[in-house]
Write a structure and sequence with these properties.
Length: 388
């Protein structure tokens, strides 16, 4: 497998020293939805999907970062018709014992919802031999949907998964949670909120104290669709009551397809999200405990924020921003340092259409991955290591 490495010269005004860049997917396929996780000993793992242009068959891959570059590209046998949408992407999770789980969604005909899907997973003890696909949820009712999922490694080393499920009220869909147990798949799900927005990405993180934090776009009785928050201090055995994380009061009678991202900082849990609120659309970052806005990019041209905190305690925000050069419109990947006077730089170039960034910290540096398409070329997965 060949990798391409480019060393970029960074203007002196940038807040980092250098960027190493390469792409990892097969350029003959359309690649999408990069996602990061870690091994129990802290190694960075990048995963993504590739879709063959003619057959439309989907393949899932992962690769481990060795400190300098990503190594062998390893294929995981999921169903080749799995869904690849960015709000409920296939995800790799690794338990404390080193065993691996890949969750993914499978579209099904649903007479009551265009989001009709089942949630499945495959499991491997060694990363080589994989189980046949099995269902996360036990309910097989064809009129119900189980989708827009997010996995997270819990403090006890097991894997939790949060997803949107059946309608339990007159609006939206319920939010459910299930977790693995030793050498077993997912147990029975529990409802953690009976009403949420129907179709946005969910966020779930475990902090250094072992507390699980879950964020999702809610739908409130007044019609606004803002972010809600629940937590668990017992590895998902019980959850707090849901509460509003920040009251934008964005009134929209549609699915935003834009979920939150969160990080544990030395000052507490911070969340970022997109809001389309009239005259205040854009990306915001808030302190979840206080509701204080930490940073905001008020613009209708910014999308898909992701946030991370380094080992040194510095927090960074990445997102896609729409730009144009003459009649050509494209999205460029921005990186912002959220300390002192917030500084922003751009990681991709003009006329490269880049989207869906994912970010993780590597010691005190960062690794960012995203989709990139240039002209009529297929989309490829680009990774960049940003050194400070």
């Amino acid at each position: 497998m060949k990798f391409f490495l480019i060393i970029l010269l960074i203007p002196f005004l940038s807040f980092f020293k250098s960027i190493e860049e390469g792409f990892i997917s097969n350029s003959a396929n359309n690649a999408a939805v990069p996602s990061f996780t870690t091994t129990p000993d802290g190694k960075i793992v990048l995963s993504w999907v590739e879709t063959e242009k003619i057959s439309k068959k989907v393949s899932f891959f992962y690769s481990i970062f060795d400190g300098y570059t990503f190594g062998e590209k390893i294929k995981v046998p999921i169903v080749d018709s799995a869904s690849t949408h960015a709000e409920g992407m296939p995800r790799l999770s690794i338990k404390k014992d080193g065993s691996m789980i890949v969750t993914f969604e499978l579209k099904k005909d649903n007479p009551t919802s265009r989001f009709g899907s089942d949630l499945l997973y495959v499991y491997s003890k060694d990363g080589k031999n994989w189980s046949t696909p099995d269902y996360v949820q036990s309910d097989r009712n064809p009129s119900k949907s189980h989708s827009f999922s997010r996995t997270v490694r819990l403090a006890d080393g097991e894997i939790g998964v949060v997803w949107l499920d059946e309608k339990l009220t007159s609006k939206g869909r319920s939010v459910k949670f299930a977790k693995t147990s030793a050498e077993k798949g997912f147990g029975e799900p529990k409802v953690i909120d009976n009403q949420a927005c129907e179709c946005c990405r969910i966020e779930a993180i475990t902090d250094s104290k072992g507390m699980l934090h879950v964020f999702y776009r809610d739908i409130y009785d007044d019609g606004s669709r803002d972010m809600s928050y629940v937590f668990s201090n017992d590895n998902g055995t019980s959850f707090s009551e849901s509460r509003n994380a920040y009251s934008d009061k964005w009134q929209v009678n549609a699915c935003p397809h834009a979920g939150p991202s969160a990080t544990a900082t030395p000052k507490g849990i911070w969340m970022t999200w997109f809001t389309g609120k009239e005259n205040a659309a854009g990306i915001k970052v808030c302190d979840v405990a206080t509701g204080k806005i930490i940073n905001a990019e008020i613009s209708t041209k910014v999308r898909t924020p992701q946030i991370i905190t380094t080992k040194a305690g510095t927090t960074y925000l990445t997102y896609a921003e729409i730009k144009n050069q003459g009649d050509d419109y494209f999205k460029i990947i921005a990186l912002r340092k959220l300390s002192g006077n917030a500084q922003t730089t751009y990681l991709s170039k003009n006329l490269e259409d880049c989207s869906y960034p994912s970010i993780i910290s590597f010691e005190n540096d960062l690794i960012i991955a995203y989709e990139r398409k240039i002209g009529e070329q297929n989309s490829v997965i680009v990774w960049q290591k940003v050194q400070f």
